[in-house]
Amino acid sequence: MTAPGKPEGMTALRGTVVTCRDDPFLGDPDRALAVEIDGIVLCRDGVIEAVGPASELLGSMPSGADVVDYSGCLIAPGFIDTHVHYVQTEIVASYGTQLLDWLDRYAFPAELAFEDPAHAATMARVFCDELLRNGTTTALVFCAVYPQSVEALFAEAERRGMRVIAGKVLMDRNAPEKLRDTAQQGYDASKALIARWHGRGRCLYAITPRFAGTSTPAQLDAAGALWREHPDVFVHTHIAENRREIDWTADLFPERKNYLDIYDHHGLIGRRAVLAHGVHLSEDEICRCHESGTALAHCPTSNLFLGSGLFRIAAMKDARRPVHVGLGTDIGGGTSFSLLATMGAAYQVAQLNGRPLRAVEAFYLATLGGARALALDDRIGSIAPGHEADLVVLDPHATPLLALRDARSESIEDTLFALMMLGDDRAVRATYVAGKPAHPRDA
Ligand code: GUN
Ligand code: ZN
Do you find a cis peptide bond into 52, omega within 30 degrees of 0? Predict the structure, then answer.
C-alpha cells in the first residue's frame, strides 16, 4: 500500500552519491568520479528522475515523497557482473584442480542436475538472492545446456525486475554425453529462447558457446548464423584462460591463427560479444578485440583460484588500442559473488603485474565500464537522469575493521578503496532494482 499523499512509484535516497562520468584509464582519473557528498537520487517508475545536492532537490520534491536517509553511506550504481555461471553456485570453493580437470570433476556434474526444472528454479532463486545481497543488479550469466535452466533463471529475474542477460550453453563435443547438444539442436533451442525472452521485462539473450574446445566448427557456424539473424542479442564465451586449454584448443583448430581467430572466423566477435578471461591473449588478439569492439570480462578471483594466470588490465586499457573490460565473478571458478571483493582481487592481480589499480579504476570496471562492455551504458552503470534506477548503498562502517580504517580515509576514493579491499556483502546496506528495495540488509 502506498501511504496517503505519497506519489506512486517514487523513491528518494539521500547519501553520498558516487558515479563515474568517464573512463579513468583513458582520461584524467582525478576527474572520472563524480561525487555529491550530501546528495539525493530521485527515482520514479523505475527510472532516475533527478540527482543532485540535497540542498537543491529537497525543496523541489513532490509533496509527500519519502526520503530514505543513507547519510554516511555511498549511493552507487548497482554493480555489473559481466561473467558468472548460475549453475555453478553450489560448487564454489571446490578444491585442488585447474581449469580442464576442474570442469570434469566439479562443473560438469553440477550442471547435469539442471535438467530438473525444480532444481533449476531453486538455484535461480538462490543465485538472484546472492546477486542482490552483494549489490549486483545486472549479470551476464552462463546457464546449462538445458533450455529449462534458462527458463528458470529468466523467470526468476523477470519476477524481480532484474536486468539479466543469459543463454543456453552450446556444447556438441568434449563433454559428458548428457551435457551435449548438436549444432542443429543448439541453434533451434537458442532461437526459441530468443523469441521467448529477449527483450521481455529486462531480460536479454546471449548466444553461449561454452568455449571453442567444446563446440565443433559446425556448431560455431550455427552460432554465428544465429547472431547474424538476431544481431541485437549478445555472444558470451570463454577465451585464453589457461595454458593447457590454449594448447588443446590450438590442436583442435590447427587452421586458425590464434584463439580469437576461431571466434572471428565463425562471426562471433564484435560489439555485444563478451569473452571471459583473456589472461593469455597475444598482442594481435588484443588489437583485434579493440578493432571489433569485443569486450573482455576480467575475473580475478577465478584466475587466482584456478591458478590460471594474471590478467593484464593496464595492457588491455592501453590508450593506443583500448579494449572494453568489465569485471566478472565467474562463480563457481571465482570465489565470491561480491564485486567489491572482485575489485579487491583485481587490485592484487594488478600489483603482481607491477602497477596498482586505483579505486576509481576498479569502481569504473564494476559499474560504467561493465555497462560499456555490455553496450548498455545508455541505461545502466551510471546515476544519471533517464537511467534505470538500479542502485547499491555501501556502508563504509559495516564492520568494526572497516569503520576503524575509514576513520583515516582522506577522500571518497580512499573510502572506496577501503570498501573494495575489506568489503563484501556485509558492506551492502541496500540494493535497489528499478527504484525498489530488493535487498535491505537490516530488514
Ligand atoms: N571455460 C569453459 N568453461 C568454463 C567454466 O565453466 N568456467 C571457467 N572458469 N572457465 C571455463
Ligand atoms: Zn566462466
Answer: no
- 405 Cα–ligand 2 center, Å: 34
* Domains of the chain, each with CATH number or no CATH: 10-78+382-440 (2.30.40.10), 79-337 (3.20.20.140)
Contact status, residue 152 vs residue 113, Cβ threshold 8 Å: no
- Identify which ligand lies nearest to the alpha carbon of 334: 1
> Taking CB atoms and a 6 Å cutoff, what residues make up the pocket around ligand 1?
85, 99, 103, 107, 210-211, 238, 241, 302, 330, 333
In the predicted structure, residue 264 carries a pLDDT above the cut 80: yes
Residue 6 banded pLDDT, cuts 50, 70, 90: low
Q: What is the pLDDT of residues 397-407, one digit of tens each?
A: 999 999 999 99
Ligand nearest to the CA of residue 333, numbered in listed order? 1
Q: Which residue blocks in 164-282 are alpha helix, DSSP H? A: 183-197, 217-229, 243-252, 259-265
Determine the Cα–Cα distance for residues 391 and 443; give it in Å rounded to an integer. Answer: 17
| Nearby residues of 217 by Cβ (< 8 Å), 6 or more positions away | 253, 266
In tens, the pLDDT along 179-209 reads: 999 999 999 999 999 999 999 999 999 999 9
CA dihedral of 296, 77, 196, 226, whole degrees rounded to 10: -20
**DSSP string of 102-136?**
HIIIIIHHHHHGGGSHHHHHHHHHHHHHHHHHTTE
Give pLDDT, residue 442. 77
Ligand 1 atom showing the smallest separation from residue 308 Cα? 9
